Amino acid sequence: MLKQSIDLPGIGNARELGGYSTGYGRIKPGLLLRTGAMNNMMPDTVNKLMNEYRLQYVIDFRMTGEQSAVPDPDIPGARNIHLSVIEIEDYPIDDPGLIEVYHKCSDRMQLFEMSYQAGMLGPNQYLYFLLGERGRKAYHDFFRILLENDPDKGAVLWHCTDGKDRTGCAAMLLLSALGASRETIIADYMLTNEYNAGRIELIRQKTAAYRMPPDKLDALMFMSGAVVERYMTNAIDVLTEKYGGVDGYLHDELNIGYAELKELRDKYLCGTEL
């Protein structure tokens, strides 16, 4: 079984933060779940989320169009909350006509070329999420839900489409808030490449004939289900430069201060031994 895995048939990239060591203890198991899209989950998965995890919240970070086209299924006992992190119009696209083309385009390679040339893919990808107004509000609300949740009653699950980028930034922020090291945060982020290994290898084989510079190839693999370490390290470095660290970002942009950090740690951490 893959590291941090939670067995949820029909849901990709399904794992939890439980078990990670932080500077304040260990994250309690079965409470903080991160996944990909949920629309193909099996009936047994619904039962497991309802009965084993006693799921309280499902947080959907997808774009409005993604969410409305394929809404999350209802899980008895859980509240579905949509928090869009970014919309196409939030990207710095010079030609407004590209937005309409983007919505209508069905050719994946054409979509990639268009996105790459427009600057929508690359090392600054996560800064659009973390520094944009919509993203800041979404991650603020994410933390408010975590603070509102009673872990004695059950778990919180957050997801996007692939469970790696909008979801991965949420995991990075939460792991930071709980006191995890940079090494732990990056290791958790990079697990996507293990969870999506088959899919990533297939894309590599299909694109082997393309002659691309390394940065562009990284962007293609990123769009195809992989994660790129320097995309996340760049995001953390920028937050450190701009706010003095991720905690500074949490405080200045998400209104998560010392009292809220302590409450999060009290809720979701236990002693050094599970």
Account of the 3D structure:
With 274 residues, the protein is of the alpha/beta class. It has one domain (15-270): Protein tyrosine phosphatase superfamily (Protein-Tyrosine Phosphatase, Chain A). It has 14 helices and eight strands. The chain has helices at residues 43-52, 64-69, 97-104, 108-117, 125-131, 133-148, 166-177, 182-190, 192-195, 197-206, 214-223, 229-243, 246-254, 258-268, and strands at residues 15-16, 21-22, 25-27, 32-35, 57-60, 79-82, 156-159, 269-270. Strands 1-4-7-5-6 form a five-stranded mixed beta sheet, with helices on one face. Strand 5 (57-60), helix 2 (64-69) and strand 6 form a beta-alpha-beta unit. Helix 7 runs antiparallel to helix 8. The protein is globular. The two termini are 19 Å apart. The model has no long low-confidence stretch (mean pLDDT 92).
